[in-house]
Structure prediction request, 336 residues.
Amino acid sequence: MTRIKTIRQLGAQWVTQDPFLFCAYHHDVFPRGNGQLGPDASLEGRLIGRDFQEKDGWSMYHGSKIPGFPSHPHKGFETVTIVEKGLVDHSDSLGAAGRFGEGDVQWMTAGRGVMHSEMFPLLNEDEKNELLLFQIWLNLPKKSKEVSAHFLMMWHELIPVKRVVDEGGRESSIKVIAGKLGDVQAPTPAPDSWAADPANEVQIWHIHMQPGAKLTLPAASKGINRTLFFYSGESIEVEGRLIPERHSLDLEPTEETSIQNGTKTGHFLFLQGKPLGEPVVQHGPFVMNSHQEIQQAIYDFQRTQFGGWPWPSQEHTHPKDRGRFALHADGREEVK
Prediction:
């Protein structure tokens, strides 16, 4: 039995399997900051408000002065935002807010609907500001699409990392964001998530392999979907096949999969989960089970704005001197 089911080349949005909807990948090397959280560089020639051009190695996205994504709605699914480098300023229609990054993960359940903004403050004024971000869209089952919106922070200090050393002494490190790997258990996910039930075997791992390292991914149950995203490195060998960087592999779940890394450090994202097996109807940031439900979601948003926008700007950011923090809708605050 072949352990590789499908191989795909990676773009900016990565193709995923049920229960995941897709994964957005952002890697920008922004200029130094201008003292107002924006880039100290001319914006001339950029399509402000829709700049995805990667001109000079970075984009403004939908931001006008600060890069990022001004207020926009979500409904019917979850976002798992892994910020490996750089920072994100979060604000939402529940009155919650936060600044997180440098390895932190935010897990947000949109449920019945929420508006939020994700801006990328450029705090470094003496050097460039690198951003490396993955945003995974994880579907919610029909029974959970109308749950209350919620977000939690997984601070990088609390996310466990399993280190595996092969027979040649070369190390692989696996950050366990969701699920379990051997004796290493991830932090508890959002309470209404498909990942909250261990029977669904949801795994989200961020993997780094030293040059030449070998790593074996353990088997899962029959019917589980699993994908390995090889986003940076030189090449890997899997089941005798040489795979260059910037490719994903859908893997057979019931067999172990051995990976032999090439001559550069390899970086990977691994997603796994039991499929929901439900109809998926998506209209932009709304994900439901039928066209009728999509129409209702649009009507609900037009009528309520999912609570409205309590912040002074659609591109709200936090004070320059503010550190990593999370302010929850119930007033509870975490400071790192």
